[in-house]
Design brief:
alpha+beta, FAD/NAD(P)-binding domain, Flavocytochrome C3, Chain A, domain 1, 2 domains, 6-stranded antiparallel beta sheet, 16 helices, elongated, FAD-dep_OxRdtase_2_FAD-bd, Flavocytochrome c, steroid dehydrogenase activity, acting on the CH-CH group of donors, FMN binding
Length: about 475
């Protein structure tokens, strides 16, 4: 929740409405209305990207609606980075990669239940999205691994910090520079239709019912992880899990889209993340494991390949005594991930001056933990094969300070959602586009399948957010 406090000043509340108003002007009285060419619902990464891209393509009569008092949505909490292939930063660093390999590993990670066309589109446009962000002053040139990827393609800010706290301020600044208005604390309630076409949205704006008319509505409303009732509707087995989601992730977009005739796909595919600190619901970045950390159980033993996919690591954790693990790492990993200092400041990190001191701090057998680390070190120092099959992101821990964070699975990401095509048009059950309705980001389904690779959500929201803005601008030109 700390990120929300930091980002509280990023609301674009000072922009005058660019559309026509009726019944006494914007927000004046009951039953007021405004008109724009396009309305974007949600000021997270996808919504902000859509607005900026649409504006730069010449569609300037637009507005963003955000139901919370701050921008950013779940993007504020994005920690790992943005997966992308064939990027200029990879090439500069001698990292060989391909869009086809990225697509194949994304499909494999989702157990081949994702939409191949959407996945290929995302991967083919990922390098361009990295360049686009760079042109906005958002440089993601620090590259690491995430679970399920065989190549370093997870792009982070230069200092290795959590990507969300660079991405959101950068996108907000770009929207402010363009004078794109954002209505904060404006909750979308229902999509307006004229026949089969979506023509606007009914909202609660400052406690008053308002209709925002538009030629195109872009849903960028995010997920449902903060709505326990909706989570258990689709996944009863997840009752009682903590969530990494921000409070506004309550699934409104799914309800509005379905009521307007859109098809929802794979809604039962709600991802749990294996490394969530349970007392604060803090997500421990996947880059920590990608940079070399290991997971040990309460007995001080490793139990699984830490770089496997999130679903498998989560399942393995739940089988351990107490259903939790310690994420253990040394000073090298600490220094390479600036987010860890924030975790430590929040009191989430246990520390010891040696393996034995750390073992005492986390109450595990010192000899067992030392044996575990010795075996892990042998993977890189002696070329030993890992008994759990880990081949990526291994480093030999150095002598000296050791750290650990207690983690267990938490609700993280809705991988299902509104069915779309490559134009981000919302589709009905017959596969036909619903006129005037578009969607991008976590509110959509079909891209990740039944397991999302760490770093792919940011790629998803930026690629498809940018894409939907350009598509709508072209359609209304």
């Amino acid at each position: 929740m700390g990120a929300l406090g930091v980002l509280g000043s990023f609301g674009l509340t000072g922009c005058a409405p660019s559309g026509d108003t009726a019944a006494g002007g914007s927000g004046a009285g009951e039953g007021t209305s405004e008109s724009y060419d396009a309305v974007i619902i949600g000021a997270g990464g996808a919504g902000l990207s859509a607005a900026i891209a649409a504006y730069d393509k010449g569609l300037t009569n637009i507005v963003i609606l955000e139901k919370m008092a701050v921008n950013g949505g779940n993007t504020n909490f994005s920690s790992s980075g943005m997966n992308a292939s064939e990027t200029k930063f990879q090439k500069e660093q001698g990292i060989e990669d391909s869009n086809d390999l990225f697509a194949q590993e994304t499909l494999d990670g989702g157990h081949n239940t994702g939409d191949p066309e959407l996945v290929q589109f995302m991967c083919d446009n990922s390098a361009g999205a990295i360049d686009w962000l760079d042109s906005l002053g958002i440089k993601l040139d620090n590259i690491t691994l995430t679970g399920g990827m065989s190549v370093k393609r997870c792009h982070r800010p230069t200092d290795g910090s959590a990507v969300g706290l660079t991405l959101v301020p950068g996108l907000v600044a770009a929207a402010e520079e363009r004078g794109i208005p954002t209505k904060m604390s404006c909750e979308a309630k229902e999509l307006v239709k004229d026949g089969d076409a979506v023509t606007g949205v009914k909202v609660d704006l400052d406690g008053k019912d308002t209709t925002i008319n538009a030629k195109a509505v872009i849903l960028a409303t995010g997920g449902l992880g903060a709505n326990a009732e909706m989570v258990t509707k689709y996944r009863p087995d997840l009752e009682g899990y903590v969530t990494t989601n921000q409070p506004g992730a309550t699934g409104d977009g799914y309800t509005m889209a379905e009521d307007a005739g859109a098809e929802l796909v794979q809604m039962e595919q709600i991802q749990i993340h294996p490394t969530v600190e349970q007392e604060t619901s803090t997500l421990i970045a996947e880059g920590v494991r990608g940079g070399g950390a290991i997971l040990v159980n309460s007995e001080g033993n490793r139990f699984f390949d830490e770089m496997s996919t999130r679903d498998k690591v989560s399942a393995a954790e739940l089988e351990q005594p107490g259903g939790f693990a310690w994420c253990v790492f040394d000073q090298q990993v600490y220094d390479a991930n600036t987010a860890i200092a924030k975790y430590e400041k929040s009191g989430l990190v246990q520390k010891g001056g040696s393996v034995a001191e750390l073992a005492e701090a986390i109450e595990v057998d010192a000899a067992a933990l030392q044996a575990t680390i010795d075996a892990y070190n042998a993977i890189t120092t002696d070329g030993a094969a890992d008994e759990f099959g880990r081949t990526e992101g291994c480093i030999a821990f150095a002598e000296g300070a050791m750290y650990a964070i207690k983690v267990a699975p938490g609700i993280h990401h809705e991988m299902g959602g509104v069915k779309i095509n490559e134009k981000c048009e919302a589709l009905d059950a017959s596969g036909n586009p619903i006129a005037g309705l578009y969607a991008a980001g976590e509110v959509t389904g079909g891209i990740h399948g039944d397991n999302r690779i760490g770093g792919n959500a940011v790629c998803d929201i930026i690629v498809f957010g940018k894409n939907v803005g350009e598509v709508v601008a072209d359609a209304l030109a």
